[in-house]
Amino acid sequence: MLLNLNIIDLAVVDALDLDLDPGMSVLTGETGAGKSILLTALGLALGDRADSGYVRPGSKRAEVNIEFDLSKAPLVKQWLIDNELDDDGQCMIRRTISDDGRSKAYINNRPVNLQTLQGLSRQLVEIHGQHAHLTLLDSEEQRRLLDGFAGNQALLDNLNSCYQNWKQAHKQLQQLLKAGSDQAEREELLRYQLDELQQLDLENFDYQALADEHHKLANLGKILGVGQQQLDILYDNDQQSVADMLGHVIHAINELAQYANELNGVSELLSDAEIQIGEATQQLRRFLENQEADPQQLIWLENQIGVIQSLSRKHKIQPEELPELAARFATELDNLTHSSERIESLNADCERLLSQYRKLAGELSASRRRAGAELQQRISDAIKELGMPHGEFIVNLRTPEDAEPQRNGVDSIEFLVSTNPGLPAKPLAKVASGGELSRISLAIQVTTSTDKTTPTMIFDEVDSGIGGGIAEIVGQKLRRLSLNRQVLCVTHLPQVASQAHQHLFVAKNQKAAVTSSTVRRLSDEERVNEVARMLGGVTITENTLAHAREMLVSGGLTND
C-alpha cells in the first residue's frame, strides 16, 4: 500500500509530506483548493507524461517521491527482484521534472526509463478517474474489464502468440500465391542477374584486395625506381651510405666512451639502429627483387574492377556488398523454384496454427461466458443497491462462426443495461440519464475491483452526479472495498467522506501574491466541522453539526 507521498515545488504545492494509512482515506476541500494536483503528482510518480508546466514558478525543478509497503504484495516484490531493483523489501519511487521539461525516474534510487516505471506502477496503483464512465463506453475497455474479471491474462497471452505466428505464416503464404502470376518472369531476371554476379568468382571475392593489387601494379615502375634509390642511400653507396656513416659515428662514440661512461648508452642505441637499418635494407632488397611487371595481370585487374564497379552502379550498392546481393538473389530464386513446396509447407503451418488458435479462442470464449454470467449478476445487484431497483446489467457476448482470427479472440463483447422494466437492454452509450450512467459506471468499477490484487486504488470524484441515500451506499461500498486494500477517494459528498478511516483536507493559501496548497489530516472534531461544511455550505448551524456527528458515528467512526 501507499505509505507516503512527498511533493516539492509542483504547481501550487511548495512542499508536502503526507503519510497515508491502510483502509479508506478521503480527500476533500473547496473546489479549486488543489485536490487534483495530488492526483497529478501521483500520476507523474507512476509514469505519466511530464512537462515544464508542472514546475512551480521560480523553481529549478519539481520532485515527487512515493513509498510503498510491499508486505502484502509478493508479486511486486518478485518483479523488483526479477528486474534487479529490489532493496530489502523497500519500494521507493522518485520522479523529477526540470524547468526545461526533462524528467528522470528512479526506483529504489536506481535510474529507470518510463516503460519500466509504468510496468511497476500498474501493479501498485489503479486509478479510476471522474470521467471513467466515458472510457467504459469503449468496446475494447469493456473487453479488458471482462477478461480482467475472468483472470484470462495467461490464456490471452497464449492466444496472442498463436495469432502472431498464424498472421506471419498467412502473410508469407499470400505473398507467395500473389507472386505466382509473374513467377516465370521474375525467375528469368534473377537467373540473369545471378549469372552476371557469379562471373566475379564470389567465393573468393575480395574487392579491396583486387583494388590494392591493381594500385601496386599500376605504380610498379615508381616503386622499383624509388626503392632502388633508397637502397643506394641506405647501403649500396660506398662513399655516402647511411650504413657507412652510422658505422663511423658508432666508432667515434665508442672512443669517446673510454673517457665518459655516460656515452655507453648512446653507443648501444646507435648499434641497435645499425642492426635495424641492416634488416630493413635486406627486406627492401628482397621485396624489389621479387617484383616483376605483369602487363597481362594489370589488364585483367582493370577489366575485373571495371565489371565490379559497373555492377555496383547498376544495383546501386557498394562493391563490397555484391556477394551479399548475390546471396539474396539466390535465396529468392530458390524460394521461387521451390515455391510449390514452400506453399504446401506454409499451408500446413497455417492450418495447424489456425486449429490451435480456434481451440484457444474457444477456451477463451467459454471463460468469458462463465465470467460474464457472474459479472452481470454482481453488477445488476450493485445497480439495484445504487437506486435503480429495476436495473439489469447484461454482458452481451457473441461468437461468430469461422470468424477471422483477431489478436484478442473472435468474441464481440458489449455491455448492455436496462433501467426500467419492460424496456429492452441498450448499450451503455445509449443510456439517457447522465446520473444513471455515473451510477452504472461506479457499480462496474467497484464490482470489477473486488477480485483484483492491486494494493492501492484511487477513485477521483467517481461519485459525481450521485447524492442522498445513494451516496451513502457508495461510501459503504468503497469502505467495504478497503477491507483488503487501500482506497483513496477524492469526493465532494459528505456521505462518502463520513465512511473513511482517514480524512485529509486540502486548503489553498495565499501569501504575498503566491498561492500554495496544503494537505493535513483532520482530527475527529475537525472531521465533524468538515462534514458539516460539505452538508451545509457557508452557514453551519448546530443542527448541521449534529447531523455531521451522526453521520460520522454511523459511518467512518464505527468499527468495521
UniProtKB/TrEMBL annotation:
One cellular component term from this protein's GO annotations in UniProt: bacterial nucleoid
Keywords per UniProt: ATP-binding, Coiled coil, DNA damage, DNA repair, Nucleotide-binding
GO MF term list: ATP binding
InterPro entries, per database record: DNA_recomb/repair_RecN (IPR004604), P-loop_NTPase (IPR027417), RecF/RecN/SMC_N (IPR003395)
Residue stretches making up the RecF/RecN/SMC N-terminal domain: 16-511
GO BP, sorted A to Z: DNA recombination; DNA repair; SOS response
Coiled-coil blocks: 256-290, 336-363
NCBIfam families named among the record's database cross-references: PRK10869.1, recN
Task of the protein: May be involved in recombinational repair of damaged DNA.
PANTHER family: DNA REPAIR PROTEIN RECN
Family in the record: Belongs to the RecN family.
Protein name according to UniProt: DNA repair protein RecN
Phylogenetic lineage: Bacteria, Pseudomonadati, Pseudomonadota, Gammaproteobacteria, Methylococcales
